[in-house]
Amino acid sequence: MSTDIVTVSPQDNVYEIAVKMKQHDIGFIPVVEGRKLIGVVTDRDLVIRGYAEKHSGSTAVEKVISRDTETVDPDTTVDDAARLMAKHKIRRLPVVENGELVGVVAIGDMAVRHLFESEAGEALSEISEADDRTSVH
Most CB within 10 Å of its CB: which of 18, 22, 58, 110? Predict the structure, then answer.
């Protein structure tokens, strides 16, 4: 789990999110009020619900946020997190305690820790297959 998390607030805009993604070389940013997780914005959200919808760079986070975000608590096992990621075909999973964001678990975190053989490997495989089906060739 990563605990050094780049976040934005609902008051930020699409341009500010894109700049943070570029600066930190990331494609996923949790949206928080204080430390309370409100939702997340992915690079795909910016493209699909932001720029492709002809929203300007000054468009509010509210226009591109994904609110129904799957989360886990800090006591969730790696296998349970991997199963959840596979089921919902997601690469990143916010870790929340009492409604507050405390970390993010990514498929890469599992791979680095040699847990890739079980559900993490299955999750990555299923997610990658979904990406292949939705990508433009």
Answer: 110
Q: Tell me which CATH code domain 1-68 carries.
A: 3.10.580.10
User: Please, are residues 40 and 66 in contact by the beta-carbon 8 Å criterion?
Assistant: yes
pLDDT at 26 over 80: yes
pTM above 0.85, yes or no: no
Cβ pair 134, 124 in contact under 8 A:
no
Higher-pLDDT residue of 55, 37: 37
Q: How far apart are CA 106 and CA 108, in angstroms?
A: 5
Record: fold of 70-137: CBS-domain (3.10.580)
Bridge partners, residue 32, by sequence: 37
